[in-house]
User: Fold these one by one.
Assistant:
Number 1:
Amino acid sequence: MLSWDIVEHGKPLQKALKETPKPQGTEVLVRVTRSGVCHSDLHIWDGYFDLGGGKRFYVKERGCVPPFTMGHEPLGVVEALGPRARGVKVGQKRLVFPWIGCGKCPVCRDGRDNYCLQQRFVGVMKPGGYATHLLVPHPKYLVDASGVDDAFAATLACSGLTAYSAIGKIPKLDARDWVAVMGCGGLGLVAVAILKAKGIRQVIACDVDEGKLAAARKLGAKLTLDTRGPDAAQRLQQLAGGYLAAAIDFVGMPATHAVAYPALRKCGRYILCGLFGGEITLPLPPIAQRAVAVMGSYVGNLRELKEVVALARRKKLKPTPVATRPAGEVNAILEELKAGRVLGRVVLDFERVAAG
Ligand SMILES: [Zn+2]
Ligand SMILES: [Zn+2]
């Protein structure tokens, strides 16, 4: 098998030829055909997340030590089964649910693997999908996405799922309420599409890039806001007529928080998904007086992935812009993503490996 590995954080990934693993027990060997490139891969590649104030969280502290294969949006074909793997057949095309926990603790037994304390996330702690082959611990983590375009389906494993799970945390809306989507990159755009599919129409898409705002309008955002300028929070509040019930922040930097959080109505929710980094200072009394919530949302669970895939299979979900490129171009793609030059998502094609 071939994989593209982090050998040194921040340096180009290196192609490695390895022995293809043999599935044991309930494991399934998947031959990867598509693998999405996610913005959070940039942090794993760099080796840390920025906690603000000069503080960093290093990915090696949760077991991501080079040489390491990233890639948490893999889709592929079942190539071999371990002796105890049931429910899937060789040759079937499947999307891999990557947010796998220990499988034994109360959180996992409750179907919330993504919040397990002993995570074994594919492409984050375990070898991921920037490779021709991938071992999945159990067939239950394989989702049938047939009928959905392969590249778009791959992106549902992280960007689609993360957006879907965050949208599930929006408080109960009434007719006057609005929802803001902060950041119209890969996640924000799919969020706009999911909100529309779920019948939530009063959506304000926010970004600093007119091209991304235009893409959000195309996917169904009723209003858009260019958040450059010091009065953006006020403009957002006005656009929502004072009824901004929720803001989902897919960027997660002090500047996006500074726009979204003050614009919320009473009992509104600031839902944070983006991992750009930094820190904020919040005055305490208004949190109580306005009864607002600041809550995090991290990827999603298997049930939610099946739900978002079902939306896509029923053609309810308008596909977001996805470019498919030969897998060997992964280093160029990471650089483009870092420079903010990617509209929507890029997905690696392992059936066209080409140079690199
Ligand atoms: Zn991701
Ligand atoms: Zn667990």
Note: The chain is about 25% helix and 25% strand.
Number 2:
Amino acid sequence: MKVTVINGTEKKGITYKMKELFLEQLKDKADITEFYLPKDCPSFCSGCTTCFLKDEHKCKDRQYIEKIENALLTADLLVFTSPSYVCHVTGAMKAMLDHFGYRWMPHRPAKEMFGKRAVIITQCLGAGGRSSAKDIKDSLSWWGISDIRIISFKLLSDIDWNKIPGKRKAAFTRKLYNKADRLKKIDFTKPARTGLSARIKFYMVRLMQTGLGKKDPEYTDYKYWKQNGWLDNVRPWKSS
Ligand SMILES: Cc1cc2nc3c(=O)[nH]c(=O)nc-3n(C[C@H](O)[C@H](O)[C@H](O)COP(=O)(O)O)c2cc1C
């Protein structure tokens, strides 16, 4: 099983510790590739819209995006982690996700995403763990992923893992082990089921693309949908 991890911070703090505990349970089964932000995607989207309107390969940051995208597309399980910064993901995580705006369903989603599974791990001191997870989930669900699990922590006690009382640590560790254990039981040779929400999104966008194509048959997103056969009978969640 292939796992790709996107770490929303380079800091080896509590979020890192949580993620390590989680991965520890999968290590015997998994081939793991990790990215650390901002190091592995250091630039912001400049809003040039070249990816949306022309070609994603012409993005000024393509060298970084391509590596991450290849790892995302070839993995069976995606893991995203972020501490909560002012109730949201880190700026580095948001900057990386912005670069994948062109992969949102209304544009050019990758068919591989429809069968994928993902886990989001967030950590906060008091508030914001859930809203930070939602920042990531919004992108993943609009990329077409249906099986998204959230593990959100609220470590009220301390910012230093070593100073957190043993009992609390044990409780968090159990939670991570349980989640990882459940994943171990999944047969990753079979893709995840595409849920109703992803299908509704797909059919809404399909209608939109049909209309856009009538106005401009050369429109980049329309041509992509047409070439994939999605405006006919092909569906990204069905193997051809
Ligand atoms: C810029 C910044 C903003 C933060 N905002 C929040 C917040 O909104 N809510 C919260 O509970 N903790 C907040 N925190 C605390 C971190 O989420 C918390 O310390 C977390 O454990 C850091 O994880 P790390 O050790 O992996 O870096 C913030 C920390 C920083 C540096």
Note: The pocket of flavin mononucleotide is lined by residues 9, 11, 13-16, 83-87, 123-128, 155, 159 (CB under 6 Å).
